[in-house]
Amino acid sequence: MNELIGDHLDECAEGGVISRDAIEACGERYREQGYLTRRQLYALSYAVSTRNAHRVMRNSREECETMTANAVTVTDDISRITLLTGLCGLETLTASCVLAGLDPQRYAVGDETVWAALADLGRVRGSNGRIAPREYCVLLEQVRAVAAESDYSPATVGYALYAYGSE
Hints:
By secondary structure, this protein is mainly α.
């Protein structure tokens, strides 16, 4: 498993769809401020999915700051991902990127691409369409299990699985 992750991390670093730098920079600001602004969420959304990024601007400044601040205060995974996906323009992938940036030792990027990679590895069943908060928590449980079996954090495993699933 370490080899698979290492090989696909190289691919991710060579210009993969997910920008680790943008996620890590967003997470650093999130930890410093305790919330994210609408502009910060837009910047991350644009780095993750240019197609949906404009929708973030439909949220008010107060909604973005309040909901991201609240996501820091709750400790359970389902509440965090649900709060973030409650913001317009934050699909599960972008919300999971926010969480992976905030706490890379606990969270990973996650969407149908990562789900497909986990299915290919026999960790989950079948393909799944859009990943809702509940499915993200199942995905996250499996990513954490892979991380525990390897020398990598959940965030790093998520990046590698995203690259693997994108093939």
